[in-house]
Each structure stands twice: as structure tokens, then as C-alpha cells.
Design goal:
The complex is a heterodimer. Chain A is an alpha+beta fold. Chain A folds into three domains: 15-46; 63-127, SH3 type barrels (Roll), CATH 2.30.30; 133-347, MetI-like fold. Chain A is built from 15 helices and eight strands. Chain A has helices spanning 2-8, 19-46, 50-53, 132-140, 143-174, 180-189, 195-208, 215-219, 226-236, 241-249, 254-265, 267-283, 286-291, 300-308, 315-347; strands at 63-65, 67-68, 77-83, 89-98, 101-105, 113-117, 121-123, 125-127. In chain A, strands 2, 3, 4, 5, 6 and 7 form a six-stranded antiparallel beta sheet that branches. Chain A has a two-stranded antiparallel ribbon with strand order 1-8. Chain A starts with a helix and ends with a helix. Chain B has two domains: 6-63, no CATH class; 83-333, Orthogonal Bundle (MetI-like fold). Helix content of chain B is 75%, strand content 1%. Chain B has helices at residues 6-63, 82-88, 102-133, 140-152, 155-166, 171-178, 190-218, 222-230, 235-263, 267-273, 284-294, 300-333; strands at residues 66-67, 77-78. In chain B, helix 3 packs antiparallel against helix 9. The radius of gyration of chain B is 26 Å and the shape is globular. The chains are: A alpha+beta, B mainly alpha. Chains A and B meet through helix 2, helix 5, helix 6, helix 7 and helix 11 of A and helix 1, helix 3, helix 4, helix 5 and helix 6 of B.
Amino acid sequence: MGKVARFILRRKGGKGWHWTDIFTWVWLVGGLIIMFGPAVWLVFSSLKTPAALAEFPPSILPYVTSQATVEGYDKPLMLYDARMPDGSTRVLAEVRRIGLVAQMVDPKAPGEIVKVNINDRTPVRTMSFATNNYTEPFVHFDFLRYLWNSVFVTVVATVITLVVNSMAAFALSKYEFKGRSVAMLVILATLMVPLSVIMVPLYSIISSLGLFNSLWGVILPTVATPTGVFILRQYMLTIPDELIDAARMDKASEWQIYWRIVLPLTAPALAVLAIFSVVWRWNDFLWPLIVLSRRELYTLQVGLSIYSGELNVQWHFILAMTVVTMIPVVLVFIFLQRFITTGIAGTGLK
Amino acid sequence: MTTPSLSNLLMAPVNAVMRVIDAPLRRLQKATGIGGMAAFFLAPNMLIFGIFVLLPLVINFVYSMTGGTAFFLSERDFIGGAQYSRLFECQNYLDPMSCQEDAFWTAVGNTFWFVVLQVSLMILTALITALILNRELAARSFWRAVFFFPVLLSPVVVGLIWKWILQRQGLLNFGLYQFGMDPYTWLTDRNWTFAATIGVSLWAHMGFYALIILAGLQAIPKDLYEAAEMDGTKPARVFWRITLPLLAPNLLVVVVLALIKSVQVFDEIYVLTGGGPGTSTLFLTQYIYETGFASALRNPGLAAAASILMGTVLVVLTLIQLGIGKRGENKGKR
């Protein structure tokens, strides 16, 4: 432990503590709690029963009050640790409560009723994970359907994004032609056109193409991302032209050059774009909300927001499904974080 | 022959398709030449751009000059600048409630204050975080990941996480209860809800900006700091005289980027507050969305007019950004 502490707290040149060192650690530890705390709280909460969720003050971990079925009583009874007048404690089941006095029975010998002051008893609580929060929404709310829609949109949009954008990037990086700079300018200019500016006319175009209430209406407007063309083109510019000239001399067609030579060499940039695209499309919210109005077409994000906006929010289901929605992104974060952070630092684009 | 690997096996059908495509494309290449192939490669992207980005952009102007509730342009009447004058019709320009479209001006006001407060706090916290991450830390990539983590979460998840924390039986009230304070319904109080929207969007996006600033910090040549250390310069002076001036171009880009994103704020706030209580967290994008689609009295023309006004602000901000980028590039060349 001492060794670990010395490693973590080591100071440059072994100098003493400066106020900036203290500030650094306050900021880092505070950041750790503020950034991860809410997500951890969400996961713990998602494992609680509705009764435990309604409790205040809440417990951190998912506890439930133990119950027992006692002979002679129809309903299961709550179990309590009761302090007896002689100072010992017994586990008793509460039959009913009258004023300040609880009538309790011993679950093993249910004949005799023991009267206990309610201040002398504390509920027996055991940790229990309400896993049906996770299983029931798939039956009740069609969440399997939403999950499938989200996966479909994410995968198809990402594949089309990679193909279409890499083709455009190839044309813009390896060919000299009239209008190349115009095409480049048009693509860069669209960076300034966010969805919030064009959503009304875009909706009318989607409708007239018959793509309203269709997952394709969600996918198609998103696939020609200027960011994608930009990332891929920058990378393809570094591929030497001699390679392409040599292939042409060997009678390779332009399509073969694109497919067999340029694409494999662009793999690292394609990987970055694929990761970005998966996260973007998985997280998309406003556009699917506009295009999809039939329940069976909702993506996870739309379904979640609609159910959480209802009057009687069933938080135990919402929380569990929020965790499910979070899982792919957390996996991407854990395994591919390095690609994303270098991608963002390199291009300044999200 | 070696046994085929899994990736070869998976790629086999794709390769077969590509080979089938190749034959007609060779014929195309013969007919059009290599230059024609460039057009072929560019075509799908340009087609999608044209239909889903450029066309809507053009149509938007036409839309903003038509009235009625129909969505198809052919069914809409031309009314000139009436939508714009409706947006700007106010008895007293200092009081949004005196305007005909009071919701629009409420949204403009809310967005303005949100942008001012959120961006300044964002830059401040992101700069501090980046400076700290740029120090000699044990496990730096871990700490970087800590602050970056919420950036990837979907806005809906962010909104729901915080809605759950801020509700009556939530974590925040639990914390206050530990200190003997009474629970409070945060999301029914106008001011607290507004503060929450700023806090939540800080939480969700600060790591992104910290990352870009960190990249800028790491691009500052190390020998400058070594020279300063040899001269015995005080750390505060090093910050004001070396770090900040050299970071300035990067920081300006981050400010403009944050402004552009902040003006369009919608997703997580919509899930968290729905614009409420009342209209206290109604922002521009939500106004456009509700005017165009959601409300019973929908008016796509009005929504288009409002979105063009918002687009104008964004174009101005982007031009500033491009200007800064140009200046930074020229500096680099010299």
C-alpha cells in the first residue's frame, strides 16, 4: 500500500507539496466522483425493486426488506429484528401494527403473538437484485424491437457511411479533375448545416420520398458525413501516387485500385470513422424522433424518451433500459477510447 | 495452400461481389476514361449531399415564405416575408411577452443566457482540466478517460441519469439529507432547472473540449518551459507569458466550437426538462421542433423562418472559426 501511495503521489524532483498539487488532486478525485458517480448510481438503482426506489433516504445498494410466509397467514409478512425487554433480539414477522405497538409472531412458532414497541424493531434487509427490471421490458414494452431497430440503423448506416465516404475521399484525393475544389468546398460547407437548421424541409423531402416512418428515412440523411470525407481524404493523401500508377500499368481497373489497394491502406482511418459512426448513430435522437412516429419503429433512444415522458413513469424499467442503452457505448469507451481521443484531438470534430 | 483464416472467410462473399461489380465498371472506365471514374466515385456522396443537405437548405428559404400547415411545398401558399414579420412583431422589444410569438423570444432569451453561461463555464473548467491533465501525473490516460467518459453517452441517457438524480427521492436530495437539509423538488423550480441544464451539459461535454485543449497544450514546445525553469521563472508567470499566448489560437477555436454547439442545445435538455417548468428551459431548437412538428398549431413556415435566423447566427460563428483557422495556419507557415 505504501508503495502504491508513493507511486501515485510521487512529486517531480521530490520537492514539497505546492498548493497546485493539492488543487490537482482535489480536482481529479472530485472529477472521478462527479463523472462516474451518476452512472454508477444509475446501475445500482436499476437493480432495485419499485418499493426500494420509492424509499427516502435511499440505500446505495439494492436492499429489500425480507419477507416470510408464516403458517396461518395468507400474505407474506415483513421480517424485523425486534429487541426484547430482556435485551436479546429475535427475528419476528409483523402481523399488524396498532399505534406504537406492533403485533409480531415468531415465524417458527406462529401461535404466540408478541407485542413490540415499533421503535424497538428494525427491518431485516438483504441485498437482492431485481433482475426482472431487465427481463420484463423486453416482454411488456417491445424493447427487443427497439434494440433491433437501433442495431439495424447503426450497422447499416455505418456500412454505407464507410463505402460512400471512402469513395468520395478517393476521388477527392487521387484524381485531378475540374470542379474538385468546388466539390471539396461544398462538402466542407455542409459542416455548417446542422440538423436543427434544415429539419423542416428535410422532413418534407423524406416524406415525398416515402421514407417517413421508415428506418431508411433515419439512415439515409446521415450517411454522407463531411467529417467522414474529411478524415478519410486526409489519410488517403498520404498514400503515394506511385503505388496507383504502378497498379494502372499492371492493367488494374480504377475500381480494383480503390478496392484492392487504397481501401486496405486506409484501414486505420476507416476504423476511426467506423467507431465515430457507431457512436453517432446509436446516440441519434432528434431526427429519429421526427421521422419515426409508429411505436414498432422506435429506436432505443426514442422509445426511452417517450416512456420516460409518460405520466406514470415506471422508473424501475426505464433505469434498467437506460443501462442497456449505455452498454455498447461503454464497451466502445473501454476498448476503443484511444482511437476516439486521438481522432478528436487530431481533427477537432465530434 | 494454407487454410483460410476467419477474416478471409468473412471477406469472401464481399470480394465476390466486388469482382462482379468490376466487369461493368471496366466497361464504364473504357467509355468515360479515368476522369469519368472520378465522377463515378464522387457521385453517391454528392447525390446524398444534394438530396438531404443542399436541397433542404434551398427549400428552407422557400418554406419560410409560405404559410399553412401542409408539408408539401405545392400545397403551400406564398406569403412573402409574413413569417419573418410575425417573428419580429413586438410592442416592446425589451419584453418577450409583448411579442406575437412570445415563445420564440423566450427561447431566444433562454438560449442567449444558456450560451453565455455554459460556454464561459465550459471553457474555464475544460481549461483547468486540460492544464491538470497536462501535468506529470501517474496514470494520466486513466484520468483523461475519467473526464472523457460522459462525452460518448447518448443525450437521452444523460438526460435520464440526471432526471433520476434530481428528482425528489434522488441522489442530490439524499446528499443534502445527510447534511440535515430538507429534500427539494429541483426540477419544478425555474431557476434551479435552468442551472441544472447548464450543469448537465457541462458534465456531458466538458471532456470533449478538455481533450482538444490538452492537444493544444501538448503541442507547445517543451524547451520553452525548460528555458523558463532555468531562468527561475515563477509558475504563474510561465502560465501567463508562455502557456496562454501559445494556446490562444487553439482556445479561440474551442470557444467558437463550444458556441456553435451551445446555440443548438436540445437533446439532453429535452429529455431532462421537456422545456419546463413553464417555458423556463425552452431553447431555440426545441422551439423550431415544436413549431414545425409537435404542437397542435404547427406552422412549418414559421419554424423554417426561425431556423434560418438560427442558421445565420451559426454561419457567422463558423466564418469566425474559419478566419481564426486561416490565421493560425499562416502563423504556422511563417
